[in-house]
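DOMAIN: structural biology
WANTED: fold as C-alpha cells
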Amino acid sequence: MQQDGLSATDVELVNLNGPDIPAAFASKTIDAAWNAEPGKDQPEAAQRFVIATVRGMRDYYHSFIKKDVDASYVERALDALGRE
C-alpha cells in the first residue's frame, strides 16, 4: 500500500469467511482479499500451505534481509507473480 501512496486509513478492513470471498468480488463489495490458509477441512492442503509459506519466508529473508544468497531466484518468482 505504501508503494501506491496509501495508508491504513485509506482502507476498510472487513473479516470474511473464505467461501464468501468470491461472492464479494463478484458483487464488487471488495477490491482485495487475503485468504490466510486452506482451513481445517483440508489438512493436507493446510500442511502444504504452511510448508510453502515458511520456505518462501526463508528464501525472502536470505535473499533480501541477510543477503547471503543470490536474490535472482526470488526476484524472478516475485516477477512471475506480478510484482512491479
User: Anything to note?
Assistant: Residues 39-84 form one domain. The CA atoms of residues 78 and 84 lie 9 Å apart. The chain is about 45% helix and 0% strand.
